[in-house]
Structure formats: C-alpha cells, structure tokens
Amino acid sequence: MKLAVIGTGPIGTTLARTFSAGGHDVEVANSRGPETVDAAVLEFGARAVTSREAVRDKDVIILSVPFGRIPDLAPLLASVPTETVVIDTSNYFPELSGRVEAVDQGQVESLWVAEQLGRPVVKAWNAVLAGTLQTRGVPAGTPGRIALPVAADSDAARRVGMGLVDESGFDPCDAGVLADSWRQQPMTPAYCTELTLPELEQALAAADRDEAPRNRDRQMSRFATLTSAPTLDETVELNRSLHR
After folding, report:
1. How many CB atoms lie within 10 A of CB 102?
2. C-beta of residue 223 within 8 angstroms of C-beta of residue 239
3. Residue 218's domain is classified under what CATH number?
4. Whole-number Å distance between alpha carbons of 84 and 61
5. CA 163 to CA 170: how far, in whole Å?
6. pLDDT tens, the chain, 244 aa long
7. Which structural domain range is residue 227 located in?
8. Where is region (Disordered) located (predicted)?
9. HEC readout, 13-34
10. Is 52 within a domain?
C-alpha cells in the first residue's frame, strides 16, 4: 500500500519504520520540513517529503500529531479523496494540548477529531505506549501477543486499520464505531495496559465513561509527583493499577 505518516514523534517514527520495512511505499512528513526528519525514520526506505506531498495519492494516511494540532490538518486533508483511509493515533491530555471544551463536556475524542477534519477517521495505536509499540510487537499467533483496539464507522476502513495493526505486531481488536471509541480513551482499562485479545475485549466492555477523565487527571497528577521517569513495565503497572 501507499502510506503517509504525518508526524515523526515516537509513534509515527515506529510506524514509518515498521511499514517501510514490511514493503509498503511510505512517505513521512512533519511540521518542520523534510530536511528535519531523522535518518532513522528513513532507514528502511521511507521518504521524507512535505506534508502536501505526503497526502497525495495515498491509500492510507496516518496522523500521529498532538491532539491539539488536529484542526491544523483540516486544510491539508480537504482535497484527499473520501476513499483514502485516515487513521488518527492522538489522545486528549488537557495538560499537554490545552483544553477542548467539547471534549471536556463529553464529546468522544474521535468524533471531535472527525468533526475538525471534516471526514471519517479510524482510531488506532492510541492505546499503546511508544515503548510497547517499539519493542513488544511479535508475529501473529505468538502466545500472549498484545492486542490493540481499532474503531471506525466504516467496516471497510476498520478492516484496513486492523490489518495494519496486525502488521505492526499486535492482535487487532474490533472496537466498533467511533461513538464507542471512548472505551479506548486515556486511562480506561484498555488504555496502555498491554492486554491479550480476550483481556482487551473484557477491558473495553468494563470501561466507565464518566470515570475515565477523572482517572486520566489523577494519573497525570500521579506521574507529575514521580522523582524519576518510570520504566515501560512500571508505566504499564501504574495504568493497570487504576482498575483494580
């Protein structure tokens, strides 16, 4: 497939490397220009281009930018054909991206993203830590393989997203439509807790919509009090501990 990755943070970088290594035709762009894309992103054949070049003639466009920057991408995507699958990996953390009143009032994050972009999106790779994505993907069929949720209103687009999640080393979990994607938002049981597929399905079902934003804010305050950065395993354990 012809893929674009917009954003070269840890998630975007890993996805660009993974899919170019897997034989996909990948172009990468960020907000600072192609000359600023790190060589490691391009190691397996991905090409650094401008954002406008990146979204041209693509099967899939992966947006891996901060939640607060999503509205800035609307003009970029305005001319992208409706059949192009757009995947959003972002999460709403008010302390990082600024407050969004509609989301604070209860609008599902993915629906807000789709509204800002003026087109449907697939929600994927938002519920995985960068370290997990970088180091814990394994081939399909591996016992204990970590699963990731994928939500979209289009069955066809969701299948595309699930296929790419599988290629990235994780079991894809059909998380339904975007209206239900609050179940994979920050600090729900499904969020960054490294669960197997059966465990993830149970976690999605157990999510509490009202409790999730309170857990998010509590967890961010908790992280702020730590005197050193937690390891990957410690972060996963802290996230799991919210739901015991």
Report:
1. 13
2. no
3. 3.40.50.720
4. 7
5. 10
6. 999 999 999 999 999 999 999 999 999 999 999 999 999 999 999 999 999 999 999 999 999 999 999 999 999 999 999 999 999 999 999 999 899 999 999 999 999 999 999 999 999 999 999 999 999 999 999 999 999 999 999 999 999 999 999 999 999 999 999 999 999 999 999 999 999 999 999 999 999 999 999 999 999 999 999 999 999 999 999 999 999 9
7. 65-241
8. 207-228
9. HHHHHHHHHCCCEEEEECCCCH
10. no
Cα(2)–Cα(130) distance, integer angstroms: 23
The answer to the question of residue 119 being in a domain is yes
The alpha carbon torsion through 10, 130, 121, 62 (nearest 10 deg) reads 30
Token match 């702020």: residue? Answer: 224
Residue 139 placed within a domain:
yes
Position 33 in a domain:
no
Domain count, the chain: 1
- The alpha carbons of the chain give a radius of gyration, in whole angstroms, of 17
* CA angle, residues 175, 75, 111, in degrees to nearest 5: 25
**How does DSSP assign 78-147, residue by residue?**
TTS-TTSEEEE-----HHHH---HHHHTT--HHHHHHHHHTS--EE-SSSS-HHHHHH----TT-TT--E
Sheet with 2-6, side-by-side order of all strands: 47-48, 25-29, 2-6, 60-63, 85-88, 122-123, 147-152, 171-174
Phi-psi domain of 200 (left: phi exceeds 0; alpha: psi -120 through 50; beta: other): alpha
**Contacts of range 75-79, beta carbons closer than 8 Å, 24 or more positions apart:** 76/6, 76/51, 76/52, 77/117, 77/118, 77/119, 78/118
Q: Residue 97, Cβ neighbours under 10 Å: how many? A: 17
